[in-house]
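Encode chain A's predicted structure.
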Amino acid sequence: MTDPAFSPKGVLQNPAPSGAQGASEITELGALALSRAIHAKDVSCEEVMAAYLCQIERFNPRVSALVSLRDPEVLRTLARERDSELARGQSRGWMHGFPHAIKDLVETAGLTTTRGSPLLREFVPAADALLVERIKGAGAIVIGKTNVPEFGYGSQTYNSVFGTTLNAYDPTKTAGGSSGGAAVALALRMLPVADGSDTMGSLRNPAAFNNVVGLRPSLGRVPSAPNADVFYRQLGTEGPMGRSVADVAMLLSTLAGFDRRSPLSARTDAADFALPLDLKTEGLRIGWMADLNGHLAIEPGILEMCEKALANLGHLGCVIEPVMPAFSMDRLWDTWLTLRHWTVAASLGEFAADPQTRAQLKPEVIWEIEGARHYSALDIARAGAARSEWYQVLRRLFETFDYLALPVAQVFPFDAQIHWPERIAGRMMDTYHRWMEVVIGATLAGLPAISVPIGLNSAGLPMGLQIIGPALADRAVLQIAHAFETVCPYADELRPALLDSV
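Encoded structure for chain A:
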């Protein structure tokens, strides 16, 4: 789980050029470049912490991406300790000295974990989740949390504890969710990399809405223990976000890997994700699923942007062909609703059963829990069987195609004052999350799916392309995304205007 540029003792074999970096120069560095600069001692961990704290002070009040922030003096002290370790020739890992904020759904020892709910406003866990253990083990300093919707439900990051997280490219628009705080903090250079989680596009949608990269790994790739919600794990997984595919891959090398506390975690070598992402693209076949033969309502302009992006992969030698899975999309949605209702009810049903706590739950959560009452155990079993059939349909498609592609979202970032779009291209949305139906295919099949930036529309709003790979082909998905990024480096080139206006 280490950067291959590191020697066994943690000293870079190919250090970055010498020379002091200004605060803005530090936060502009990608995560891998920042790691090299720290280990080459071109910048100190204390300078890095000071630069990021300055960036947070400038931008976070405008967008509310980071919450439960720790005392700056404590953080500076921890950064100085990291410098002392480097002076002794000791490195904790590639994230040594990195400021890092954990998604506020994940438990952090000694630091408030609200899950965006007033019911947990004062909850301070006694132990770290496995993801936090691994991030700290790689050398990062936890500075706070990233904002989320209440209990992570709904792809719009707002809650009654911390308010609404606003889009990095247009602060009147939504950041997406549920990893909205993470995506905005990345885009505005308040974090080098970020962790997130994804049940219904929560790593993919906010990445697309903020022009960064988000990977939903294969189920089991990133283990969760010992305090993970077992019902959430039926559909959701944690994963990495970054401003480049290489940074995302490197963070995955930290998060992934078998753990005995999580028996279904993948036993493959996580260090593979830290290797170069070179890929021979000539002849690779990509199945373009578009709007699923008109099943999905999609805002004008999104399909055109995606097809333009795919044309760039065509210039790299990939073969792009339209494809439609041989499966009823209405049945797939019904399967999703059944399993979603069941997992939410199993996780939060106790809150809904108590009138005092129920009154503090958002309506969408109550709707999910009440929906579960209409299902029998047989209904849930049938949904599980349909999910397995869907996986087999996609497995057979991957006998013909190397990758499948879809838009990441069905709308561009919308008004942050509304909870969800009720209408798309003239069609009414019948649930609070129907507008995100495009992401459920990869979730239900447990497949790796990445969101790569594909530019801005005429209003300056970002969008992403979703690339899906076969089961456990996370590295292959990262490789094709990296190949795309070499010809379309949108995350680098299309900076938020807010960065230069404050």
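DSSP finds 17 helices and 15 strands in the chain.
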